[in-house]
Amino acid sequence: MSGSEMKKKEAELCQHTCDHPDVVEEVRKAMPGEQLQQDVAQLFKVLGDHTRIRILNALYRSELCVCDLTSILGMNQSAVSHQLRVLRDARIVRSRKKGKNVLYSLDDSHISDLIRLGFEHVQH
Hints:
The protein has one domain: Arc Repressor Mutant, subunit A (Orthogonal Bundle). Strands 1-3-2 form a three-stranded antiparallel sheet. Helices cover about 65% and strands about 10% of the residues. The protein contains seven helices and three strands, in the order H-H-H-H-E-H-H-E-E-H. The protein has helices spanning about 5-10, 20-30, 35-45, 50-60, 65-75, 75-90, 110-124, and strands at about 65, 95-100, 100-105.
């Protein structure tokens, strides 16, 4: 490790031991349970795929069927269907039957907010 890398590493550590038991206890009590934290990590894991983000970006704009998505994304139907299944299983998208087609949309406003905020974050 070079000298500058070691300095950078040291900068990430506390320079002296400090103790803030009131803050530590307050934060510890406010944190959600382990299962909920694992569920949120799984949500972000599912969102961490470029193809799925493209699908969600399209669905952010409109309810669409698989054929529409294949056309928009330039992908084959089985690949889009597979990604939609992953998103549906994670409760990120929902589907509804309309005649002979199945239309997909974002599951709720929380997912819309995540997509919108994610794009806002990376653009600023």
